[in-house]
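Bug #77: duplicate submission created two jobs. Keeping one. Sequence:
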Amino acid sequence: MATAEFGRAVRRWRDRVRPEAAGLPAGGGHRRAAGLRREELALLAGVSADYVTRLEQGRASHPSVQVVEALARALRLSRTERTHLFQLAGQAPPGPETVPAYITPSLQRMLDRMTGTPVAVYDASWTLLVANPPYAALMGDPSGRRGNERNAVWRNLVGPGTRVRHTPESRRAFEAALVGDLRTAAARYPADRRLRRLVAELRVHGDRFRELWDSGAVGRQEAARKTVDHPEAGAVTLDCDVLTVAGSDLRVMVYTAEPGTEDAERLALITVLGTQTLTG
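Kept job's structure:
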């Protein structure tokens, strides 16, 4: 059970994170402190501002492992601080048998510097951990997604899909690669209960997933050239690279355009449009 000290720790760490360091605009009215507002922490962690308030005031108990992990990530905690936050929440920190979700400060600094490039970080099960503003502008703001909605396998085989354009052939290959990647993760982390639950729910709700899973489909996500249908800027064709972080099994998805092309101009426009939407 979370203690009052859990709320005090969240508040203390929230006060030390400058909004611009978290990819948020520094302006937006008078600030009583240099740190994050509760609403900003809620946005970064993917929870409600009311829930952050109740946690800080000691009126909410039993935050889930996923919520504690998201708060630790949004607060940019060190590994030691993250462990302490889990202990204050009455939770055991995820061990080596679970899918890693910890974004190191050095990886976070790298993401902070990619202010004009769409970047998202996924775990080994293809659950979205963090997406920067250009990525949200390009692919749609993911901050309101909860649970399975944040998982790329679920969104593409059960949910509404994404803005990426596919031919029937490319879609079949893409789906097989997603399922193959998930199979690899399930074999690597057999004790991860959240991952086992995801696979079970995909089997129940996704006919295409069940077909691929039962057929033993294998594959993996690789670099590709993708066309994204943006609702305001139209189609933009970009290079999509998937980088694996050694030692953590995280996947960093990066979208870029060749300089001087129409696609580069369109991507720049999308980034500006998205920034206006997010800060307006």
